[in-house]
Specification:
- The chain has 556 residues and is of the alpha/beta class.
- The protein folds into 3 domains: 285 residues, Alpha-Beta Barrel (TIM Barrel), CATH 3.20.20.70; 97 residues, no CATH class; 116 residues, 2-Layer Sandwich (Double Stranded RNA Binding Domain).
- The chain contains 17 helices and 14 strands.
- An 8-stranded parallel beta barrel has the order 1-2-3-4-5-6-7-8, surrounded by 8 helices. A 3-stranded antiparallel β-sheet has the order 9-10-11, covered by helices on one side. It has a 3-stranded antiparallel β-sheet with strand order 12-13-14.
- Strand 2, helix 3 and strand 3 form a beta-alpha-beta unit.
- It is elongated.
Length: 556
């Protein structure tokens, strides 16, 4: 790696920084930039109809400020803004934001697009970074500052000419992270003076990490320094717009809010130029997991994802926080077991406070199902298998049976070389235990009770007659016992010559209706020490238990 060609990003000279001790206790003002930053980064930009659908989605989520585009840059962008206004698609409590460079003809066209709007933010920007000044524009600091001031003056004049008090102003020193911090402040003060910013008429100063160039703590230092040194702090709303070039856009935005930022710009699922922008879904749900109202509604995250994918033609990474298809999935056996136990503990305690291992958020809170939490592959364990069987099908496999069936599932996975679906796991259970009909197949079974003394629990009071098929021939026996299972065990020992006892037994019903079935689990132990496990299903609990014994005998 040719690391010698890169220089470390400079630290900020700030003493007694306060942001590390802060906590976020309230959601910032959110501004969606999906229809501008997200749209301009698409291989195939959205059509007007697609942008309208996305706009409606953003309104439904709860965004009150939505940057809808760059109306002076393209006909589609202009048409979209006009359609929103002319068709009254903008709710009264929603403000649209439009972007423009600090160039006269672009600013004028932007105001043409806004004619008749209720509430709007005109977002003016020009790049102030060192490298852009020196390499791209070949201008000095005063010339760059003059561009910002002239643009601001024209926006103010056009607003006054329109008579629309619903128009607000936002200025961004583009590439703030590449700009000397004291110069960025100098330009900002010049813009504030030109606009006439005041506490009663504040302007938005947006500080973008147009390219993410440092660790999040240094960005937070810059924001705190800026908030400390700006004149008339109450005359400005400090906004941040983080990019993800270093993979820390969410962290940078969170620390910036701790450092004093009032407002955050971002996009659904982090869509945007290069590595993308701040993922507002992640930051908002991060707040939710800390008990803070995010003031955005992501309770139907699957629908939001579908609309996003449809209109942007972009995918969502399977590991994307909160929204990826695998984030509520555990493959590891120990994780599966912990999740299973954690959910049972929550249900048993009745405690409303979420505390389940490996799941920082309740999937139901974002409209996801528990069904996908555990998936079975070569990394899975008995706990995950047991969870699938109970959660999906109601089979409460006892602990002493779980390792045995888990091994069977593991062998199946090793053979197929792929993940098993829940239905395949249930089918394997039936194949291994329920349909274990070789060498003995039950053809007929009758049970007769003759209880001479109901108060006694040791009385041999049950007579069982059974017809079995063994390797194509029928065999029958009649045996007595203190119950159906005891009688059947005695009969099978006579029939097979095996000497065994029932070592473990469990049963439960599947379903809660009149036609519910019973499921029995049996572990038998032969005199020589061999053990075998079986299971049986029947509408009659006695027959289910007898079938389970027969299953275990066949497995021997």
């Amino acid at each position: 790696m040719n690391y010698g060609k890169y220089e470390a990003y400079p630290a900020v000279d700030i003493e007694d920084r306060t942001w590390p001790d802060k906590r976020i206790t309230k959601a910032p003002h959110w501004c969606s930039i999906d229809l501008r930053d997200g749209n301009q980064a698409l291989p195939v930009p959205m059509s007007v109809d697609e942008k309208v659908e996305m706009f409606r989605l953003l309104v439904d989520i709860g965004f009150k400020e939505i940057e809808v585009g760059f109306p002076s840059a393209a006909a589609v962008e202009f048409q979209f803004v006009r359609r929103l206004i002319e068709e009254n698609l903008i709710p009264e409590d929603v403000t649209i934001q439009v972007l423009t460079q600090a160039r006269e003809h672009l600013i004028r066209k932007t105001f043409d697009a806004l004619e008749g709007v209720g509430n709007a933010i005109v977002h003016l920007y020009n790049s102030t970074s060192t490298v852009q000044r020196d390499v791209v524009f070949r201008m000095g600091c005063d010339e760059i500052k003059r561009i910002a001031m002239d643009g601001t003056r024209l926006v103010r004049e056009l607003k006054e000419a329109s008579g629309n008090e619903g128009i607000r102003f936002q200025y961004s020193p583009e590439s703030f992270t590449g700009t000397e911090i004291d110069y960025a402040l100098e330009v900002t003060h010049a813009v504030m003076d030109e606009w006439g910013a005041s506490e009663s008429d504040p302007i938005i100063i947006n500080l973008p990490s147009t390219v993410e160039m440092s660790t999040p703590n240094i960005f937070a230092d810059r924001i705190e320094w800026f908030c400390r040194n700006i004149r008339e702090r109450k005359a400005v709303i400090i906004s941040v717009h983080t990019h993800n070039d270093r993979g820390t856009a969410v962290a940078a935005a969170e620390l910036a809010v701790m450092a004093g930022a009032d407002r955050v710009e971002g996009a659904l699922f982090g869509n945007g130029e290069r590595c993308g922008n701040l993922d507002i879904v992640t930051m908002a749900l991060n707040l939710c997991t800390q008990g803070v109202d995010p003031e955005l509604d992501f309770t139907n995250l699957a629908h939001i994802s579908d609309v996003y994918r449809k209109n942007t033609r972009m995918s969502i990474h399977p590991r994307q926080p909160y929204s990826g298809e695998l984030v509520y999935t555990a493959f590891s056996g120990s994780h599966q077991d912990a999740i299973n136990k954690g959910m049972k503990a929550i249900r048993a305690s009745g405690n409303n406070c979420w505390n389940v291992p490996y799941l920082p958020i309740d999937p139901r809170d974002v409209g996801c199902s528990y069904k996908a939490i555990v998936r079975i592959n070569s990394q899975s364990g008995k706990g995950g298998v047991a969870y699938i069987m109970e959660n999906d099908f109601g089979y409460e496999i006892p602990k002493w049976m779980q390792p045995h069936f888990g091994s069977a599932v593991q062998s199946k996975v090793d053979t197929t070389g792929r993940e098993l679906l829940p239905e395949e796991i249930r089918e394997l259970f039936h194949e291994e235990y329920i349909r274990m009909h070789d060498p003995y197949l039950m053809k007929k079974c009758t049970i007769k009770w003759e209880d001479q003394d109901p108060e006694r629990d040791d009385e041999v009071s049950t007579t069982l007659s059974c017809i079995l098929q063994y390797n194509g021939t029928e065999r029958s026996f009649t045996a007595n016992g203190n119950g159906p299972v005891d009688a059947f065990v005695r009969g099978m020992m006579q029939q097979t010559g095996l000497v065994f006892s029932v070592d473990e037994y469990a049963e439960h019903s599947i379903g809660h209706t009149a036609d519910a079935k019973a499921l029995a689990y049996i572990r038998i132990k032969e005199e020589g020490g061999r053990e075998s496990i079986g299971a049986g299903i029947d509408s009659n609990i006695s027959l289910a238990s007898i079938k389970a014994v027969l299953s275990a005998v066949n497995r021997l």
